[in-house]
Amino acid sequence: MAKEFSRSRRVGEQIQRELAELVQRELKDPRLGMVTISAVELSRDMGVAKVFFTVLGEGHDEKQTLEALNHAYGFLRRELGHRMRLRTVPELRFQYDHSIEKGSRLSALINEAVAQDKDNSES
Q1: Is 11 exposed, middle or buried (0-12, 13-18, 19+ CB in 10 A)?
Q2: Which of 32, 40, 58, 93 could cross-link with 12 by S-S, CB 3.0 to 4.6 Å?
Q3: Which residue has the higher pLDDT, 98 or 40?
Q4: How many domains does the chain have?
C-alpha cells in the first residue's frame, strides 16, 4: 500500500511539473494570466488528477483562467501522454487553489495585530 501511495504521489508531482511547463511555454491564451500549478492530487487508480492552480497579477480572474485551461484540456492531456509515456493519462480536473489567498489574508491580519500591539505598548 505504501508503494502505491508513493507511486501516485511521484506521478502527481511529475504531472504538476509537466503541466506547469506546458501552461507557461505552450499556451498562448490571452485569458491566462500568471498561472501557477500549485498541486496535483491523483486518485488511487490514477484515473483522475485534480489540478490546483492560482493566478497572480491584476486583471485575470479564476473563472477566465479555468475556462482557458478547460479549453486547452485536450492539448494538455495529449502532451502529458507524449511526455510521460503513461499507459493511460488521467482525466484532468482543474480547480482554483484558494490557499494562497487565505495565507495572504492571514498574514496581513497578523501584521495588523502586531502593529496594533506595538502602537498600544508605546502609548
Answers
A1: middle
A2: 40
A3: 40
A4: 1
Q: Considering only CA atoms, which of 29, 42, 6 is closest in space to residue 52?
A: 42
Q: Answer whether residue 114 is part of any domain.
A: no
CATH number at residue 47: 3.30.300.20
Q: What single-letter DSSP state applies at residue 70?
A: H
Closest CA to 36 of 106, 100, 114: 100
Inside any domain, residue 120: no
Q: Residue 43 region, left (φ>0) first, then alpha (ψ -120 to 50), else beta?
A: beta
Q: pLDDT tens digits, residue range 30-77?
A: 888 788 999 999 998 889 999 999 988 766 678 899 999 999 999 999
Residue type for position 24: Q
Global model pTM greater than 0.85: no
